[in-house]
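During the second year of the project, the team shifted from modelling isolated chains to modelling whole assemblies. The rationale, set out in the original proposal, was that interfaces cannot be judged from single-chain predictions alone. As a representative example for this report, we include one of the complexes processed in the last quarter. Its constituent sequences, exactly as entered into the pipeline, are reproduced here:
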Amino acid sequence: MIHSLFLINNAGDLFLEKHWKSVISRSVCDYFFEAREKAVEPDNVPPVIRTPHHYLINIYREKIFFVSVIQTEVPPLFVIEFLHRVAETFQDYFGECSESTIKDNVVIVYELLEEMLDNGFPLATESNILKELIRPPTILRSMVNTITGSSNVGETLPTGQLSTIPWRRAGVKYTNNEAYFDVVEEIDAILDKSGTTVFAEIQGVIDACVKLSGMPDLTLSFMNPRLLDDVSFHPCVRYKRWESERVISFVPPDGNFQLMSYHISAQNLVAIPVYVKQNISFFETGSSGRLDITVGPKQTMGKTVEGLVVTVHMPKVVLSANLNATQGTYNYDPVTKILVWDIGKLNPQKLPNLKGSLSLQSGAPKPEENPSLNIDLKIQQLAISGLKVNRLDMYGEKYKPFKGVKYVTKAGKFQVRT
Amino acid sequence: MLNHRFLCRNEDLKEMLESNKESLKLEAMKRIVGLIAKGKNASELFPAVVKNVASKNIELKKLVYVYLVRYAEEQQDLALLSISTFQRALKDPNQLIRASALRVLSSIRVPIIVPIMMLAIKEAATDLSPYVRKTAAHAIQKLYSLDPDQKEHLIEVIEKLLKDKSTLVAGSVVMAFEEVCPDRIDLIHKNYRKLCNLLVDVEEWGQVVIIHMLTRYARTQFVSPWREDAMFDENNEKAFYDSEEERKVEQTKPYIMDPDHRLLLRNTKPLLQSRNTAVVMAVSQLYWHLAPKHELSIITKSLVRLLRSHREVQYVVLQNIATMSIQRKGMFEPFMKSFYVRSTDATHIKTLKLEILTNLANEANISTILREFQTYVKSQDKAFAAATIQAIGRCATNISEVTDTCLNGLVLLLSNRDETVVAESVVVIKKLLQTQPSQHSDIIKHMAKLFDNITVPMARASILWLMGEYCEHVPKIAPDVLRKMAKTFTNEEDIVKLQIVNLAAKLYLTNSKQTKLLTQYILNLGKYDQNYDIRDRTRFIRQLIVPNEKSGALSKYARRILMAPKPAPVLQSAFKDRDRFQLGTLSHTLNSQASGYLELSDWPAVAPDQSVRNVEVVEPKFYSDSEEEEEEEEEGSSSEGSSSSSSEESVSESESEENSDDSNKSSSSQSEKSSSESDSEKKKKTLKNKKLQQQKPDILIITYLPPQIMQKTLLLIIMTKYILIHIVLSISTQFFVNCMCSLLHLCVFLACQFDVVSWHVHVSLQASSPVFVPETSHELLHRMTGKGLSAQYRFTRQPCIYGNSMVSLQLTLSNSSDQALENIHISEKSSTGQNIHRFNAIGERHTTKEDEFSVSIQPAVGELLLPITMSEADFTKEQGNTNTSYWHADETPTNRPIHFSVCISRFAGKTVSSGSLVLVSVALKDPDAVITINTEKTVIGSMLLRQFKTALTNSCP
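Output from the structure prediction step:
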């Protein structure tokens, strides 16, 4: 399936290659570079590229292109999903997935890639298992390793791999048994000029951090499971129980993992937490424009809106911005043409406002379209859909775990057209 | 110089490798791996590295493996040195070492070791560890790519591994099957059902591969489920899917889906909830290619969900949706808004979304879509704006109601400042005008006015073509345009020049008075053009239109040739022809056949033999079934005491536990389970039933069950449960049998057969064997009254080996006193003409004291009915035969809202003693149920009826 993998940075340097079958010359990447050049923006590179003898399937993540070489028919999503899994594993191991961390940990990276694929077919992709095979680097361990010459390769067989519960390692032991769940909801919305909702939906995930000894069997139930329109689960969740009883029953992996993600579609009413009054105009003469943006709370369910940021991708002709913000700070980058207004906490008594003039390139025609605004925000202790966890029960183990649930609402792809 | 330094460094690595210190060696290997990762050549270190292959240090060893696999091909002779190490490791007691030895051995691409590899694979395929077997499956593919001549032997191994029941192996071996022998579909038959059942528990990557393989398999083995739908299908699929064939068979008989086909669809459905996008896509394509059209809608939501994922995932999913949305608009129409474009999307994502929106456009939603398109046209991304204009053009041609609106909108765009937008509008307008030119001379005039400002060649050419084609509608302007063009001819692009020549010719034919000179001038210019296409065209046109001696008959027809009415272009989706590829494949994404693409065959007209898939298997337990069993199990065994516990016992025990649990829940949450859910509910229950059915043959009869567990499984709960659910859900008689059996506790027993402790059942798999055997026992004798002896009985529903007219009964005797009980037997003085097959007394010796207890077996109803198989037609016939049969009918109010999908449930059986027929049918007419019982035996009939009535009425909450 996956023949080879090349890692290429944003500047076009190929800094790592790995082959699972016979070696393929790195010159195959020339086809990729060609496409990369044509696309201008890295985001516009087509994910699947055909070359005379191979197919290149690539993903772009954290400023790195993961380019895999394929020789025969394979579902493209299979490869794409796997490449993302590789990137996530790196992130999990090294804290971030960047060129420098990969270069610093090249041996571990190589060992990981070796374990993740056998003959191009995924072998072990569960982080619990990989961590048993290859221990993630820590400062302490790398020091001990250099002194004692001991290794960071696990000596035992990962027990999970052989059981019917491949995601959990055996013999987990904690003195403090705890299980935390974060319900994170993101609002995806498009609002039009007048503020009416063109499209809105809620994407939610439940992230879990479970540190429980032994083989706990957990059951998580909701107050209002019917709210969930469409769900997808970590492989540990038993589909049948969900289908019949609408509870989430699972033997969790050890540590952090994403238990489920769900979708509450546009059909249900999605509360929009803020409104934006904006007026951006460019003048026909004088190469200037005016900008006036006010943000106010709408449906916040009595919670405070925090981390409010407004981002505007200005048209190419905008040279600079001379603005005045009543709250927070603004920054206009004349190279990327991005205006960022970092507001912070939204005060309902005194609405934040950004006002001022824009200067345009002289002589250039005025831009036809006003730029749309992207809003970022965060509301603590609230799941905007109203989803509530009812209870968490544990079977199979005797101790009493410490349990906790946290709710956060964020703006996802929240766009205001102007 | 540089080369020299490089050599030096390698020298020092060599030294490090040859030192005695483990840490130095490790350090050296790490640096070498670093070199390999950078793509630098480190092959000359081979001899120094390969020495360390037998190192004790695991990390060092692993790094040596990495090196070996990378360079073995280049240094074949030296690589052979390491082989013996691997051969030794293949015999290691640790499965991890065995597996990794096989992995590396099979990755060394040295043809000489093919026989060794073959041997190792064969051995590993029978290894006890499923992990090693999985590695063997991977090794098969490696060996095959190294030496395709081994195919036959490898197929044997694949065949063996396909039988493997481990979820770990399944994905890998199917992968090997797909690479080595995808055409050997016969290997799958026997494993088909197993694979379907395993699927949920296989790791996600294996799921993708298995699903794709099963899709191909199903297309060769089952008949098309689309026949019936084709009638009310919106998009006239019939014409597309091989119509002749279908029309022939259409009249024959109603389509019944093969249960195996259904099994596949049912078992893949939960995987739509997978977090792995590839799995979701695989299931979606399976449904697209295999499911009846009306079941397709369930995949929509999941596909739309994937759009939240990474950019690359979006790209592939959108492509597939684009193909689907051409054929079936309805599927995605409710989710139209999910395809709205954001300004932050990548260009290829935007274009795909646009494509889908255009496919989804219909009379009802066109105004919304056009409004959305208006925003896009203004986009800063000009390529995208141009694509939007094309999309508008497509909407305009497809939906005649909006053609005029679109056209007006496009004309407005002609005054747009951006050139690409204007050009694209011109091109699209040209296409639109062709459909109805006469009414639009205004637009043509308007375009002629704009002509001077337009510089994009394609747009200029389009306007010129329009002028020429419809010059009769704009008789005044066309010659003037030609005059201007004559001036600029030499500076135009080729494509424009061709159109100028074209325009000149057309004007010459229609209006030669005004344009004769101009035309000749242009033809002269063209004659000496640098481009030979233009020279050719000019020469041809001149001969055609200017009459002279040499020109033959052709010039007479010049007008008819040039001014012939031309068909309007059809604007259609670029995804129109993509459906020739299986969805979700690389070939589909590329829109061209990738190497190794396996064609999806057409449905067979007649289904091949179904029985090839028949196997008798004992399904192992999987994670997804286990629910809360673990603890139940524990409880059971702890109370059971020491030696008597066996795994079979606890499994079947917990199963009945589970059932009763379920029933509790289902009755208590009745109100919650609205009709909307009944569908999924039904599926689940059916599944459960299947499971019971499958497990029945290998259930060992349980003896000595601890009493507290027994009491827990209250019969009543089981009763209500099965009535509640199974009557409601029964589709086939099989299920109805099921509920009958659990419901009815008729009296009279005719024969009892006892054995000492355990009684081995002789299983016979008749079609009409009971589907469900309750595990509950009833008390016959309490230990207090029995002076230490307690007895429990249970109907096993197995054919009695002592006589055809006898009912089997299992009696469990236990001694709870502290002394031995002896000579337990059934006394002769049994009651009223019943025939009991007695068992031999237990422990027949020194009888010191005799106690006698008279017991009676509780009226246990339907236990003396034997279910029989009967076709529906026969059933109705027999039922209609009222002369000979006793007939009961009653209306029972069932005061709960039941939403029945099936209205009539039937059960056919005969009494065990006399073999007289008993027919029961329950027709549900909301909120009443009509129960009809036909039998000669009045007593049984009335009892049955009473039981039914109570059961149905009691089941209400």
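Residues 800 and 808 of chain B are 5 Å apart (CA to CA). Chain B touches chain A through 117 residues (CB under 8 Å).
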